[in-house]
């Protein structure tokens, strides 16, 4: 009998105490689990010629050693004892699958695995080949990888990438203008430096007679 599994059956051949004939009257079953207290008076089904069958509830099988005692008025009592066993496939699964019991259930998430469970030794040679992958698997994986252009854009526009409030793209615009842009107002207190396209003042600085800056306005759009 399998442990803690519903839908199983067990039976006993009942004999009439008075004359030894097959007992065909009403028979009930009491269950004793792991040397505990005997309980229940569940009815059986007479299948014929004194054989009475019982379908135990799942709870009736949740033990290592179980005794099913069949009794009937005028019949000789019969006890059928069984030792339960887990399904062989379940035992193999519990042995092979990295798992952790979490409140009565098996947790086979990757996060529940011990360190080093998945390594080169866990795969047989050629375990992953063309036959193991769907035809679209490679293209689907590739489509999820950012392109060089997407990576560059992410880097250039990373918030606070250079310093607080300044991205890499903005810093390059300012430094490029300061190095190569047209300059006007050098003899005044307001100096303007154009962007490379000469479409706007990229840098506007307030300076004194010695060229010291006291204020700077940037247009980094």
What can you tell me about this protein's structure?
This protein is an alpha+beta fold. It folds into 3 domains: 10-83; 88-114, no CATH class; 161-218, no CATH class. Helices cover 17% and strands 28% of the residues. The protein contains 4 helices and 13 strands. It has helices at 88-96, 137-143, 148-156, 168-180; strands spanning 10-13, 28-33, 39-43, 45-48, 51-54, 65-71, 78-83, 100-102, 105-107, 183-184, 190-194, 201-207, 213-218. The strands form 4 sheets. It has a 4-stranded antiparallel β-sheet, with no helix packed on it. It has a 4-stranded antiparallel β-sheet with strand order 10-11-12-13, with helices on one face. The chain has a 3-stranded antiparallel β-sheet with strand order 1-5-4, with no helix packed on it. A hairpin with a 5-residue loop joins strand 2 and strand 3 (39-43). The protein is rod-shaped, with a radius of gyration of 42 Å. The two termini are 77 Å apart. The model has no long low-confidence stretch (mean pLDDT 88).
Write a concise keyword list for the protein shown above.
221 residues; alpha+beta; 4-stranded antiparallel β-sheet; 4 helices; 13 strands; 17% helix; rod-shaped
Present the secondary structure layout.
Layout (H helix, E strand, L loop, with lengths): L9 E4 L14 E6 L5 E5 L1 E4 L2 E4 L10 E7 L6 E6 L4 H9 L3 E3 L2 E3 L29 H7 L4 H9 L11 H13 L2 E2 L5 E5 L6 E7 L5 E6 L3
